[in-house]
Write a structure and sequence with these properties.
- By secondary structure, the chain is an alpha/beta fold.
- The chain has two domains: 48 residues, no CATH class; 172 residues, Rossmann fold, CATH 3.40.50.
- It is built from 13 helices and eight strands.
- The strands form two sheets. A six-stranded parallel sheet has the order 5-4-3-6-7-8, sandwiched between helices. The chain has a two-stranded parallel ribbon with strand order 1-2.
- It is globular, with a radius of gyration of 20 Å.
- It starts with a helix and ends with a helix.
Length: 257
C-alpha cells in the first residue's frame, strides 16, 4: 500500500507541479515525451535528447572471470542486469528458463545480476537450474563492462522502461540484446539488426528468443557488432553535448531578451 501511495503522490501531484514550473522539459525517449502528463503539463516540451555515454574500446573477455561462474568455453551465456522486481520481469526469466529446461530444448546459461524484493523468491523457484549450473545469481556487481565481455548476449524482459542505460553498456561491449517491445526499448534496439524485440509479459516468446540466441551464435555476434556501430552514431557523448548546448543557448537567449 505504501508503494502505491508514493506512486500516486508522484504521478498526480509532484510530477504535474514540476512540469508546470519548469521553463523547458526534455525526455530521454519519444515514449516518455509523448506521455499525457508531459504533453498536458509541460510548458515547453523539447522532445527527446537521448542518453549517451563516453565511447571506449570493448573490454577483453576474462576467461578466469567466466570460469568463476562455472561457465565452460563453449557455453552460450545470457547476461541480465537489473532489479529483482515485477517491472523488470525477473519472474518471466524464471518461467522461460524452466520451460526450456522441462522441454529439453537447447538453452543458454543465465547470469542474473542484481538484487531486489523478489530475488529470494526467484532464487528458490530456480533452485533446480542453479544446482545444474544453468542459472547463476551472484547478487550485485560493479564490474558491468567485464560481465558483458564474458557473456554472449544481453537479455531484459522488462515490462516498463524509458531508455535503459544497461542496453548502452551492452552495446559498448558489442552484445546483441533480447528485450521487450515496451517504452523506449525500440528506440535503442533495432529488431532484426541489433537484437530481437518480443511482446512484454510473454514467457513463451522469451523462451523462444533465448533458444534462438543459443542456436545462432554467428548472427548474435553480427547483431552485437551492429549494436556497437549504432551506439557510436546515436548514443555517443559528443552528440548529447551538442544537443544540451543548443538547449542552454536557447535558455540564455530567452533570459537576455
Amino acid at each position: 500500500m505504501r508503494k502505491s501511495w508514493k506512486k500516486t503522490l508522484v504521478r498526480d501531484f509532484l510530477e504535474p507541479y514540476t512540469l508546470r514550473n519548469a521553463d523547458m522539459v526534455y525526455n530521454v525517449s519519444a515514449f516518455g515525451a509523448a506521455k499525457p502528463a508531459m504533453t498536458h503539463f509541460a510548458r515547453r516540451n523539447l522532445g527527446v535528447i537521448d542518453n549517451a555515454m563516453p565511447i571506449t574500446p570493448p573490454v577483453a573477455p576474462d576467461s578466469a572471470l567466466r570460469a568463476s561462474f562455472g561457465f565452460k568455453p563453449d557455453d552460450v551465456v545470457a547476461l541480465s542486469i537489473g532489479r529483482a522486481d515485477v517491472e523488470k520481469g525477473w519472474h518471466l526469466l524464471q518461467d522461460a528458463m524452466l520451460q526450456l529446461d522441462q522441454q529439453g530444448i537447447q538453452q543458454p546459461k543465465l547470469l542474473l545480476i542484481g538484487d531486489g524484493p523478489h530475488r529470494k523468491m526467484i532464487e528458490e523457484k530456480m533452485a533446480s537450474l542453479i544446482k545444474k549450473g544453468r542459472v547463476v545469481m551472484p547478487g550485485r556487481r560493479n564490474d558491468v563492462a567485464e560481465l558483458n565481455a564474458v557473456s554472449d548476449f544481453f537479455v531484459s524482459p522488462t515490462l516498463r522502461d524509458y531508455q535503459a542505460y544497461v542496453f548502452l553498456e551492452a552495446m559498448m561491449q558489442c552484445k546483441a540484446i533480447l528485450t521487450t517491445r515496451v517504452g523506449g526499448n525500440p528506440e535503442i534496439v533495432v529488431d532484426g539488426v541489433t537484437g530481437k524485440l518480443i511482446p512484454p509479459g510473454d514467457a513463451g516468446a522469451l523462451a523462444q528468443g533465448l533458444e534462438w540466441f543459443a542456436q545462432n551464435p554467428a548472427l548474435c555476434g553480427q547483431y552485437g557488432q551492429a549494436g556497437r556501430i549504432r551506439l557510436e552514431h546515436h548514443f555517443a557523448m559528443p552528440r548529447l553535448a551538442a544537443q544540451l548546448g543548443t538547449v542552454y543557448q536557447d535558455m540564455l537567449t530567452q533570459l537576455l531578451t
